[in-house]
Design brief:
alpha+beta; five-stranded antiparallel sheet; disulfide bond
Length: about 220
Amino acid sequence: MKGTHFLLAFVLVVLSYSFAFAFDPSPLQDFCVAIKKPTDGIFVNGKFCMDPMRATANDFFFPGLNIPANTKNQLGSNVTLVSVDTLPGLNTLGISLARLDFAPYGGLVPPHYHPRATEILTLLKGKLYVGFVTSNPSRLISKVLNPGDVFVFPIGLIHFQFNIGETDAVAISGLSSQNPGVVLIANAVFGSNPPINPDVLTKGFQLEMNVINYLQKQFGSST
C-alpha cells in the first residue's frame, strides 16, 4: 500500500512539474513596459520594467505600419518587425507583429525559422506561395495564398514566403513572442562568424569544396 501511495505521489509531482513548464506564468501586474536601464526597475524576461505609474500611451503605440517598405534589394522583400524593442509595452505579453512587403514576382522571404514563436500570416494584397517543412521525415506543407487568406507556420519549423504575383504583395504576421528571433538558413549555415569548417559542409551537403567556398563567400564568411 505504501508503495502505491509513493507511486501516485511521484506521478502527481511529475505531472505538476510538466504543467509548470508547459505554460507561461500568469502576469502579476497589468503590464511591464520595457526600459533599457535598470533604474527603478525590475528584471523580467530579458527587459526591465518601468514603474507603471510612469507609463504613457506612447509606450503602447507604434506608427507607420501602413507605409510600404523598400523592396529594392537582393531578395525583393522587406520585413518591418514590431517587437518589444520598438514597442516597449509588448514586454511580457508574449506577442509581436510584422509587416511583410514583397516586390512583384520573385520577392522572397527566404527559408528561415523563429526559435521562439509560431507565426500566423494574413495576406492583404497580391499572391504568395508559402510553406513550411516538417521535422524528419521532412515533408513540405505549402499553399498559394490570395488576399484574405491566413496561414500558420508552427514554432521552430523552416518556412518561406514567395511572391508569385505580378504586383506588389503585402502581408501581416502575428508572432507568439515579444522577441521571436529569426534564423535565416543559408546565412546561418554558410555565413556564420567564424565560418563552419568547409569539410563539415562538403560532407553534410554532399557538395564539392569549390561550391562550398563559393557559398561561404556569397553569404559573407571568409574561409
